[in-house]
Amino acid sequence: MAKTWEQLRMMQPIAGKMLTNSIVKQRLSHAYLLEGPKGTGKLETALQIAKSVFCSQRERFEPCLACNNCRRIESGNHPNVYIVKPDGLSIKKQQIQDLQEEFSKTGLESNKKVYIIEHAERMTANAANTLLKFLEEPKSETTAVLLTEQVQQILDTILSRCQILTFLPLQKNLLIEQLKERGASLSLAGTAAQLTNNLEEALSFCNEEWFAQARTLVIKLCEALGKETSSLFFVQEKWIKHFVEKEQLQMGLDMLLLIYKDLLYVQLGEGEKVVFQDQRALLESLSYSQKRMISALSYILEAKNKLNANVSLPLVLEQLVLRLQEG
């Protein structure tokens, strides 16, 4: 989904403001390095730079997203926008040489050219040195945008020739809005945003039936524990069959931590911090003492630590539920 600079500036205020100011003043750098965690908008920003360079109907810094150039960049078919991705595990010297050869040609439509290198840290030593020569002799109408999640693996000589822009993890409220824009329900988006700062990972959670069922099982266990019904039987019948892998159970326990924190927030009158907002009625009906809730948080954290020590998953779960029941 194409984004506007206004949306990107909300996601990354500092980087977005610096880039849009440069576009308005026609002072784009010949080379940028966008560095930061996965899912923070680096590729979208790189493509937006290209659209701002080529858009035929741009207003100040904002490309129209509708003209022929904008549409071709969005679909990956613009002749003057070149994207380099790892070929297998690395970016090879030949790929950078192909890029140089492509950019040595005179453009049919324009002499402006933009190239984007994804996962720049995966360049082989030969590829990085070849790129370095390219960066040392920039053409006035060429803009390079390098993307990386591991800036410490980029050659210092390349870093020194780029303007470095750091992309920060998304704020929770912005991440939730991004997920809702992509069709996620508020309840799933709110939970996913607590488990990761990565937009792509959070979106994959929201699109998985397993994740939705896991959330439901966490709610049902909390309800069973509150009503002192047979929680152990519920865990043996439902949880153990659903949370088969260690990573899955870690996520289930993370959700259980969230819902117990919610119980505490409700008692403290801090309802705006509640993650399971769709379960407010349930949370308000459970009359735990604060001491019991704090103990429960401690028990869940202990269970998470036991999982890292390769203890039997069913055993960890059963012991946890017995402790939660006893309070």
TrEMBL record:
Enzyme class of the recorded protein, top EC level: transferase
Keyword annotations of the record: DNA replication, DNA-directed DNA polymerase, Nucleotidyltransferase, Transferase
One Pfam short name: DNApol3-delta_C
Signal peptide: none
InterPro entries given in the database record: DNA_pol_HolB (IPR004622), DNA_pol_III_delta_C (IPR015199), DNA_Rep/Repair_Clamp_Loader (IPR050238), P-loop_NTPase (IPR027417)
Reactions this protein catalyses: DNA(n) + a 2'-deoxyribonucleoside 5'-triphosphate = DNA(n+1) + diphosphate
GO molecular function, one term: DNA-directed DNA polymerase activity
Enzyme Commission code: 2.7.7.7
Source organism superkingdom: Bacteria
Domain DNA polymerase III delta subunit C-terminal: 243-325
Name of protein: DNA polymerase III subunit delta'
Species, as recorded: Ectobacillus funiculus
Gene behind this protein: holB
